[in-house]
Amino acid sequence: MLYTVLIVDTVTVAFTHWRIAPVYLAVYAPLLLCLFCTARLALWLRLRRRTLSDDEIARRLRTTVWMVAAVGVAFTAWAMSLYRYGDAYTRSHIAFYLAMTVIGCIFCLMHMRLAALLLAGIVIVPFTFFFASTHNPVFIAMAVNVFLVAVVMVLVLLFYYRDFTSLVESQVQLRAQHAETQRLSDENFRLANLDGLTNLPNRRRFFADLDHQLMPLQGQARAPGSLAIGVIDLDGFKRINDLYGHAFGDRVLEETGRRFAAQVTPQVSVARIGGDEFGLTVVGATAYRQLLDLGDTLCAAIERSYVLPEGAARLSASIGFANFPEAGETTTQLVERAYYALHFAQAHRRGGTVIFSPEHETQIRHLSKVEACLRSADFEREITLHFQPIFDTGLHEIMAFEALARWTSPVLGVVAPSMFIPVAERCDLIHALTEVLLRKALDAARSWPEAVRISFNLSARDLNVPGALHRVIRTTLASGVAPHRIDFEITETALIQDFGQARIALESLKKLGARISLDDFGTGFSSLNSVHRLPIDKVKVDGSFVAGIEREPTARAIVKSIVELCENLGLACVIEGVETRAQANALRELGATVMQGHLFGKPVPAGQVLDTYVREPLLSRLGRD
Ligand code: C2E
Ligand code: CA
Ligand code: CA
Q1: Which of 402, 404, 419, 594 to mutate to test the pocket of ligand 1 (most atoms within 8 A of CB)?
Q2: Residue limits of the EAL domain (predicted)?
Q3: Class of the CATH domain delimited by 376-624
Q4: Which CATH number fits domain 203-356: 3.30.70.270, 3.30.2290.10, 3.40.50.140, 3.60.15.10?
């Protein structure tokens, strides 16, 4: 607007002085001035379409200020030098031109106080002096008028500018306030979504992110292998917590968080979703091979020993993965399946990675069938016991029989205990089952010679669930079998789950007079150190060490050290799963005497126990070697 007003007004003045003034004043000078104004006008129009940086804006405004001064001087000088050429009309035009144009320009520069004041000073002061000194009363009156108007305008300008700057300042403040509010709410969001101990995203964030990531994938054309989720569980963490205290456990978790955080990439994120459970999301690289490699890397990170100021510890991690959409399409489904894979890893590949596969799907379906049948099963009729001898190779006699459950379902046929016992544990049928089995086992044992012991498997839940132990004790006392003939077998998982409760339970069984065997020793995480702190009488070394005993030096070393430690701690030691005579001989060389396995007899029904083993002594079948 400013340059347009200048150009138009200047052209009209040039027009009224055409032929009156010399050509350099009437044509060239205004032409030059108008060209300059046009150039500036074009520049401003072009700038309107660009976003300028703060620095550039400040620089341009400063240029404008001194340019206003220069332009003011040039136009005033030009107009005044035309004054002497014309008559009264053209002179009035000059005065009018200067007064009106400067007022218009000051209005246009309202937001630039310095420029507006400069312009007012540069034009109005010479104007007033110039026309006041013409001795023409009309021009003198005009000079006074214009001067007064200019003063008022400057005052209005100053008030206006003050309001304008305070408006800008309040805007700036408001924006700062808004930024502070935003910062606080960001911080709040961060804290609400962050795990305090490990600084990793927490459970809430993990699930929210997962929902967010799944939403665009669901329903649309399938993009296999685009997203996988994983759950990680630290094996042996609960034991560390129990043994060394929560403060130490926290340090271990912090360190674990750091190790996982080091594995985070744009494709892989890790969150802490529970006590010692971590969640993973993997985008892009979700082929089986890639997930297994990632699992290995994460497991390896955890297996490095933890050296902390408070002490040292060792851990391992098991990981279960579920792939979208193969394993499920919703967050719930995927998480459930990842957990299934994790439990599978813990049961079969401790310290390893398992990816949920179609076979798992079949297994889940089979398990739910087993569960349904077990719920409606008549334990009394369908579930029986087989007995397997535990043989003392030193004394050449049977020390005990282990009771092993057998289920013949009218729907499913024969179901292995390794299948239905975990199901019974999960759906809380185990207590009723244990009660029936214990009664049957003790019934059978009543007919055996007094010297032969009965070994009975208890489930972890029989020890850890309040009230369950009572049923075991009641059944034992009601059986008529002397409690000191009974060995209760428990696996170390029972101890790991709740060390304190397990200890109390074991002590009350011991008080009855029964003895305690630690089953499947060597497959889990018990150190003999923790065994030592529990009232245990016997250790049963897992059969997996026996398979390679003749060839594998490590298996030998492990068995040998367990046998020796048992001796030192005054514990009896039974080796399970002995199938060949060569194995038995190798074990004897390592110092083991008490063994169990197919070599000494397979599990047989209660009715055949006396026939097969007691009346027909083993010694004759095995020879005296
Ligand atoms: P476990 O307590 O370790 O029982 C030993 C398992 O090894 C038995 O399997 C037995 O049949 C098998 N076995 C014995 N000798 C040999 C051998 O020389 N070679 C091989 N390869 N295997 C041998 P089973 O009867 O299938 O039982 C599996 C598991 O189910 C048991 O492992 C135990 O953990 C659980 N279980 C069995 N009966 C009961 C029960 O009444 N209550 C509870 N809570 N668990 C039970
Ligand atoms: Ca057992
Ligand atoms: Ca065992």
Answers
A1: 404
A2: 367-617
A3: alpha beta
A4: 3.30.70.270
